[in-house]
Specification:
By secondary structure, the chain is mainly α. Helix content is 75%, strand content 0%. It has a domain of 212 residues. Helix 7 packs antiparallel against helix 13. The two termini are 17 Å apart.
Length: 304
């Protein structure tokens, strides 16, 4: 990691954090909009294909100049498998839930990330002795439960289906995150993501052929097609690289904390586009959830 300057703001890292926040905020809006034009399997395939094609030239350049570690193709298999399931669940939840509510639920992934990290990373097992860490997890779980039961139509079949899908996405986001850390510790994130995207597109293509209606895309107007391409490049291809660029400059804690604002930036956009709003108890429990996640993230910087 690059040397971190003390006593002044790292401008490039700050801009990268804010840009990643913006990229991940517009993604759910596009996905929700596209639910009226494409089934989730076809939408998933087309959006990820756009991201894959965006980074493909860099991946080919890395291969041509022998800058790509050949082991990346083997290392990427497990993370990509988890990512196929994650992307399917992530997109699927928007067919049942509104964007901001969905994002709040998925922030419970911090619980799974913490659990998997304690299992797989010896250097993080010191968190077991951190009161701040355990308080963060308790607040996160309390916030998730509160957000769910405060929803007016909680208990309806449609909402419960979306909630279970979103909770599944949170689990696989945690698993995917940890598998990425294991597989790509010493590999360029752009090349690693390029390989991941190829495997993911292959998996999503199989699912789209089996369960989707790819022919829908041929009948789709120009603007939805533009939304597919823009969302794939912005909220998948660019967001990951911006996030990793920020982490290389200022570490993982601050970028992770900045991205906790995502549910509220999504809510602001969703309120304008879809007239979505959260009631007062949901907002209160949402803040508890994010405060707990912030504590859990913050506790990691005190590890030896």
């Amino acid at each position: 990691m690059n040397h971190i300057s003390r006593g002044k703001i790292n401008t490039s890292a700050t801009l990268a954090c804010l840009a990643a926040l913006l990229c991940w905020s517009v993604g759910p809006i596009f996905i929700k909009y596209l639910t009226g034009h494409l089934d989730l399997w076809t939408q998933n395939l087309l959006r990820y294909l756009s991201a894959c094609l965006f980074w493909l030239p860099f991946l080919l350049w890395s291969v041509h100049n022998r800058r790509l570690d050949k082991s990346v193709w083997r290392r990427a298999i497990l993370p990509a498998s988890a990512n196929v399931i994650l992307q399917s669940l992530w997109a699927g939840a928007f067919y049942y839930l509104d964007p901001a509510f969905m994002n709040l639920i998925v922030k419970s992934s911090v619980i799974w990330i913490a659990g998997f990290s304690l299992i797989f990373f010896i250097e993080e097992r010191g968190l077991v002795k951190s009161g701040r860490f355990w308080l963060g997890l308790i607040l996160s779980m309390t916030g998730v439960v509160g957000v769910l039961i405060s929803k007016e139509d909680f208990g309806s079949e449609r909402t419960m289906t979306g909630v279970f899908i979103a909770l599944g996405a949170a689990f696989f986001w945690g698993l995917y995150t940890v598998l990425i850390r294991i597989a790509f510790r010493n590999i360029d994130s752009r090349a690693g993501f390029g390989v991941i995207s190829i495997y993911t597109v292959a998996g999503l293509a199989i699912l789209a052929v089996l369960f989707g209606d790819i022919g829908q895309s041929a009948r789709m107007p120009a603007w939805p097609w533009a939304c597919v391409v823009i969302s794939g490049i912005v909220s998948i291809a660019l967001s990951h690289v911006l996030y990793y660029a920020a982490m290389r400059r200022i570490g993982a804690t601050i970028p992770s904390l900045v991205l906790l604002a995502t549910p509220f930036t999504v809510l602001a956009l969703s309120h304008v586009v879809f007239a979505e709003s959260l009631n007062t108890p949901q907002l209160a429990f949402g803040l508890i959830l994010l405060a707990g996640a912030a504590l859990a993230i913050w506790s990691q910087q005190h590890l030896r």
